[in-house]
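B., you asked whether I could sanity-check this one before it goes into the benchmark set. Here's the sequence:
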Amino acid sequence: MTIRYLKHRAQTAADSTAPTVDVSAIVKGVIDDVRANGDMAVRKYSEKFDQWSPPSFKLSPADIEAALAACPQQTIDDIKEVQRNVRAFAQAQRDSIRDFEYEIQPFRGGTDGRKGVFLGQKNLPINSVGAYIPGGRYPLLASAHMTILTAKVAGVPHVVACTPPIAGQIPHATVAAMHLAGADEIHLLGGVQAVAAMAVGTESIGRVDFLAGPGNAFVAEGKRQLLGEVGIDLFAGPTEILIVADDTADPLTVATDLLSQAEHGPDTPAVLITTSERVGQATIRLIHELLPNLSTAALAGTSWAQFGEVLVVDSLDEAWRLADEYASEHVQILTQRPREALEKMTAYGALFLGEKTCVSYGDKVIGTNHVLPTKKAARYTGGLWVGKYLRTVTYQEVTNPSASGHLGRLCGRAARAERFEGHARSGDLRAQKYLGDSYAWIPTSDKASL
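And here's what the prediction gave me:
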């Protein structure tokens, strides 16, 4: 594969995002403190990191109604419309997952002709979920839709939701989105102290079984350390965008859409793979023209300077292969036949096909989930969806005596091949009971009763 770089990521990019503090140690200290001291520790860290220490972190029904009333009606209407989209897609996902029971024939023979061996699958929702809705720079309403609403469509009976204050104020629109999404409890609490409280439980916050939602490096590390004690949705890294474009792509669209994701933070990879040097060069020029008039230029410009890349390849087949190597979170296709990517690509968090579609739609309004794999995790997992909130469990029942006896013989042989004598004897016992086999290890007195 021949690759020509029109723009490299900065050689110091990896160093530029290296933490200046020991994130892991800080997070462990917070979790240990919350585990030992509960609400007292939670309040201490909320005061330290967010300068926030209300009488209660949990919002009352009156608090929630006040937040709803503080939102413009258009904001409420937009939240409801977006949530209808998210709910419809999540429900379609749920409807695609089915319980089933199957009667199998695991053996040859038998006297009554019945199979009598039933295997089944059930999909049970997680009992309690903690949803973390980030704040800090912006009120991230969409994260409420993606985490809380999707859990509710999956059938989760209890969702605890946390979001931080923004500059010491209640983020009214975020609270409205959390409430309308179906949160059973809303706590105005952020950072590691929030995810730790939900994961281990305190006097005022019940322990959950699963944590969902994005966050900063400290929140992500908290989820990593708590994994096992609770489940988590994904290990979240910085937002990523990769665009595959051919000569038909509009460079202004390419430049605009790259910057739309670069504004998430100062460490967002924004990559263009194109078969057209003209499109690549024009995109670079337009990004430099657009940045000065972008209100988030400080973040987007830093990401572009440090992590932006423009690569030219000889063919779309090479572009598909290279894009799969990146395994980006968001992959936008700006080619003459965008649906070709569905056949040619295999590693991505989400595909956005054609100029009429953009990653920002997925982030904010279209209905698919925006909690997606980063840092090449798309090679082995998808994003957050209804299925993440379900536990697929199995059951089995043998009702046919002959079937049980034949399975017993098979189990005895299979277990002894692995030198598991206790397992083998469980099989032997059924073979003796239902087929009349004889085994020396069964006491004589018990053989008579069988």
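One thing to flag: Residues 400-449 form one domain. Otherwise nothing jumped out at me.
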